[in-house]
């Protein structure tokens, strides 16, 4: 080392920090017609012409349903300590109501047993957007009954797996389920009704509360129940009052609409006032807010990029650059007066800016919203245009740098007093990326979709080394 060089202090994490990876059922499992499984809204949506890139579907995905043992062995080889996966509702309850299909539950029993035998801690997400189509036909999330059907489903899965799975997440990103599914229509079920989207958000909140009670009724007290939120890190373009008001509106619609009732037992008054032209909120019944505000054991946070907004120019007709897909319909009810802006600098293949400071900001925000509450980063990652080299290896230095920056931000938040217990990389495997089909690769493990061959990318090897040592390796450690 040259005399003038300054040694870099290693970024080291607490010994108990959980290093994991995350996936979701429809994105990886395939086997959509096996063992009693019936269509979810994503089966229907992806088979509707024009809804997904290239007409791609999750019919086969990455065939995890048949290859789960190999995928668990891969995680073990990398040294991961945790795996967050979701349960396919229609694999367990084909119509979204009634008794369970044991063949469907048996798959998750086998998966959990395989994980535990490999020394990997399972974390179950009950809902990652794959609502049974029969429940959508009955009205979907805008209908109150769907929340009660979710609680019944939660109890079934809790009874089956609660003796071996300690970490539970009721819902993943209810914002996407409500607003991309029912307002902008870029996600299943593809509806474009802003009032229905707000009803859906409330009933998702109610489902979380009812599901939490249902889980606790059948599981050991030691188990943890949480929810995964993708609250936007909203930054005003300037400090003028109009831009600050725009930022408040989007913050309410992305975060306050969920953590308000879940953590504080109330919707923000500013949210109710801003959305009054769309709905009178009469779907909130007496007792709902108390039912939603159940004690939880942790908050899980998903973060990819910050959101920059301003008051819209009345004469502007620019496309909405909010990073949530192209649609003539906005996912932001009553927010047509808000403009979205792309920050300068590096972007991922999704067009999202790379900004680790946003993750630190998000963590510290929830450290204030719920003081002392354990936090997990349940999703964080990036899509890049990964391709195998001549020797078959896949080098993705951009993703290594992305992970290093964001994990450094997590460590800084811990140093600043946040109780962050773990981090789940999104995603373990390249997979079906919703409306983007197979065009966007978020995986740390490359999947050749024709052969289903898995190849750990440089980022997987780098992250595995971090998981084994508890210290972030040099960026070129695996090149």
Automatic annotation (TrEMBL):
Q: Which residues form the active site?
A: 173, 379
Enumerate the UniProt keywords alphabetically: Carbohydrate metabolism, Cellulose degradation, Glycosidase, Hydrolase, Polysaccharide degradation
Could you cite one Gene Ontology molecular function of this protein?
beta-glucosidase activity
For the ligand (substrate), the binding residues are 27, 128, 172, 304, 426, 433-434
Catalysed reaction(s)? Hydrolysis of terminal, non-reducing beta-D-glucosyl residues with release of beta-D-glucose
Annotated GO biological processes are: cellulose catabolic process
Q: Name the source's superkingdom.
A: Bacteria
Q: What class of enzyme is it?
A: hydrolase
Instruction: Show the Gene3D superfamilies listed in the entry.
Output: Glycosidases
> What EC number(s) does the entry state?
3.2.1.21
Q: Which Pfam families match?
A: Glyco_hydro_1 (PF00232)
Task: Spell out the InterPro entries in the cross-references.
Answer: GH (IPR017853), GH_1_N_CS (IPR033132), Glyco_hydro_1 (IPR001360), Glyco_hydro_1_AS (IPR018120), Glyco_hydro_1_beta-glucosidase (IPR017736)
Q: Where is this region: Disordered?
A: 315-352
**One cellular-component annotation, GO:** cytosol
So what family is this one in?
Belongs to the glycosyl hydrolase 1 family.
What name does this protein carry? Beta-glucosidase
